[in-house]
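Quick bug: Flavodoxin family protein output formatted oddly.
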Amino acid sequence: MKVLLINGSPHERGTTYIALKKAADTLEQLGIETEIFHVGSLQSVCIDCRVCKKKGNNRCIYDDSVNEALEKAETADGFIFGTPVHYASASGLMTAFMDRAFYAGSDLFRYKPAAAVACARRAGTTAALDQLNKYMTISCMPIVSSQYWNMVHGSVPEDAPKDGEGMQIMETLAKNMAWLLKCIEFGRKNGIEPPDPEPQVRTDFIR
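Here's what came back:
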């Protein structure tokens, strides 16, 4: 089993990385393979061209780190999406990544457990978590929780390990993720499979 952790910070080894690394280390101790993937830079935001839907190949028309992550998502069993907080929301980089990844590759995320993690100097974390959770709840993904909201505080990377509660939250989150993944694996070995997705019913408010 493998968990893919997405680092949506402009800084590859910033506070968000420290939070994700704590979760990854705990997962590894519990026998779950991990990979921390840094989004890096993107060629574009989503332009609603819908070419990805027409091709149906779970890839975006812009061939950058979004497609690289989608390729990794094919073999991942769970996900943790991490972002710094910019103006009480996820970073612009992470927002662009999530828009494109989930629109182009929604089939790759369905029924796989996921969690969001937000890092901030002080506030705005819960708003950012609400934002990221919406991508998962529109994609039939079980949400993994912790003992408190998934947040770590720190102005610089060196601050994050000093947030004792935040570090414990990451550890608990990882334990809960490992437990759920093992439950799903046990269920599948005993003939319990996810439900077949139905054709989506869309109702427009204006006709």
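Actually, after a second look the formatting is fine. The chain is about 40% helix and 15% strand. Closing.
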